[in-house]
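Input chain follows. Return structure tokens only.
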Amino acid sequence: MIQYQSFPDAAGDSLTLEKLKALRLPSLEGRSFLDVGCNEGFFCGFAHFQGAKRAVGIDHARQFIERARGRFPECEFHHQDWDNLPEGPFDVILLASALHYADDQSALIASLVDRLSASGTLVLEMGIASSRKAEWIRVERGIDERLFPSMPMLRKMLAGYAWKWMGPSVSQDGDPVVRHVVHISRRRPVAYLLMQPPGYGKSSIASGLFTRAGVRVVSGDETIARVASGRSAASGTLGAVILEGYSPFRLDETIHKIFELGLGGDLVALWLEGAGNGDIAVDVYVPCAYHGEVERLLAKRGYMPVQLQWERVGSAPLPDEVLARQAEAFYLSLLDDTAGHRAADAGRDQWKPAGFVDEISVREGFLTVRGWAIDAKGSLPQGISIRLGRRTVVPERIERQLRPDVQRHIGLPHALVGYKAVIEAPEVHAASDLGRNFKVFTRDGGAFQLAGQVETIFRSDTH
């Protein structure tokens, strides 16, 4: 029988070692390998040498299979053809110098890809005829005539797969067509990830680029809004996190909490509901620390994640909490006693004076009292005093504080009615030491009412 593959002890018609190098196989360590038309098993032996967990070869010639078993007893060899492929899946499948023998070359490629694992590769060594047209070209060989595709025809034939031309293979004497190596995989849908922070124009890019291209856009903001409004369901824990304090202006906080609690997989599953099997563009802010997790979760769902990154145009807005703090500081800076009186005079007497003590605390010899109060003009009263035992203390400074809750409740034109007073009280070690004489009042003698939690302290002191 003709010696085809070459070994150190047997020279064959094929430059097998050089072909092995040209195939540019992926690593086979720990993976499963199938060689279709294995001849004497050279490539299966190499797979085992690399540490493949399974190396299988099939060939229609019984003599080759017997030789292969003798050379590589640690591999599996079966006397069968490609119409009866072994059960897979296989991580790597090799079809070398044989595609032109198939009656339906496209169908053979499809059946081989069907035996691949989800991320598997079909390594195809094949002849490609020279032509600019998408056509099959009949080529006379020394022993027969066979059809070979042109490169445009190969592109057409492989349009439904992910594939890459890897380069030319090794020429052999008598080859009428140049051989090439092509790696083929299942085409996975692409998930284009637009995960930049708020204000980066994600939605504009998504609608301007992907919508026009017919790629489905998944809006992370809209997904969460649907759950919050009851238009969409989410898993128990994820739904609870979304509903807790939901606000369209604090979605970044919600998303951060979702990933922090390990619910990223549930959120990704929510994005993909109804997405179909095609490409998608995901328009959603995700903190940088979780970008890798999103990519892994999407890859696990069968997508090829492609993350898009770009620089923001213009200046970024301040974080909400920073802006709020600076705005309040500015607002407070506008208020001095004179301005306060002018505002009060403009308002005239229209409010019922009131004052509350909402919180008291003692720490390291200092007593802190917080609450709110208004005079008849709706402003914080002047001259707040504190009675502590037998002495009355006028705080050196009252810190004005914003109380929007009081503003809303009473209908005030501003929220500057909160106060924080701190006085020295070395004789007081706990709030319960204040005694029944404790009192907060104004210059005209009006006493502030104690809030429920403050009254509790004094009630417990009388028992």
